[in-house]
Amino acid sequence: MRTPISSYFLPTVLARSLVPLFLFCMTSAATSAQDKPRARDLGIPFDGAPGALNAITDVAGVEVGFSTIIKGHGELRVGEGPARTGVTAIFPRGRTYDPVFAGWYTLNGNGEMTGTTWVEESGFLDTPILITNTFSVGVVRDATIAWMAENEYHSPGNYWYTYPLVAETYDGFLNDIVGQHVTSENAIEALNSAASGPVQEGNVGGGTGMICHSFKCGTGTASRKIPEDRGGYTIGVLVQANYGRRSTFSVAGVPVGKEITDMRPETLSESPEDGAGSIIVIVATDAPLLPHQLKRIARRIPLGIGRMGGQGGNGSGDIFLAFSTANPGAANRRENQRLEMLPNDRIGPLFEATIQATEEAILNAMVAAETLTGQNGHTAYAIPHDRLREAMRKYNRLRE
Fold this sequence. Notes:
Elements: E1 63-71, E2 83-95, E3 100-109, H1 116-122, E4 124-125, E5 129-133, H2 137-150, E6 165-169, H3 184-192, E7 211-212, E8 215-216, E9 219-225, E10 234-242, H4 256-259, E11 278-285, H5 291-308, E12 317-324, H6 348-368, E13 372-373, E14 379-380, H7 385-394
Parallel strand pairs: 5-6, 11-12
Antiparallel strand pairs: 1-2, 2-5, 3-4, 3-12, 7-8, 9-10, 10-11, 13-14
């Protein structure tokens, strides 16, 4: 029987008999998202002012939950493990059913985000957002429908339909992905555990088995607060990052990938398709934007990824969604609605904030991630904080 393991209740596992770097020391109930250093704590210079939590949950109403699966070690046995995977859930307005305006965009489409056809057509997102691994999209989608039915998170009445939004990135280097260890219970656990407040980062939820720029990566988040004289709105970003070549990896203009050339996953060599992985980015805002404007926001996400060295390769699934928590009740099916809309001439600061928060969320995912060993002894190494600081200092870009 497969037992789901919550990211909130995982014991600390010390695999002393294995490679010393096999330290998947997962968070316990007493561990908060702020117990680990974040990119700013290391002196990385970022532009823009973050919100209070520097997280997607700085947008009022947004809740995030996780289910993390880490079990087994050693030789790959399909269906038995080792498993290094999970599920991430995001609620735009908490547990309240009130569809939000949304827009989506893809830089390169070698990936999946279900439900986007109706988002494009209707302009609304009416389900939670879930992110998992490539081969678990189906079970997570089906579990989301069951959860929505049980919790009456849907349009009123006996007759309703929905298209859950489920996205993915590929974790097959570390995880027994063909064994499909994500179950409906994991999806439901992620949904039920969603909360406001600080957000865990690194090896957690759907990001558990992810790698970017040939370093261990995973889930990351960041936010930006627009100055009051420019609207006072908030942009929050959450990423599941699994993309990028080491050779192009850059931090605040510093070619870190050329400064730290070792510590690569043992059997993952750089090739023309190296780093072809994927990245899912979710942007939340409280600015009163309509669907076409939210698509414009989503189109700016690649500029933040590009700052880090992402290039949207042929094998990459770079898929993005932006939503707005403004205009509550706009999805009313019976009555005309009076909507508030930000003028296009005032959207520039939100573009800038999206780029900045995307960049920081990716690096937060890398800084928080811990070295992890998975199937067949494959190991992905965490970026060494001291060497990252040394590289930044070498180019006079470190904030001491």
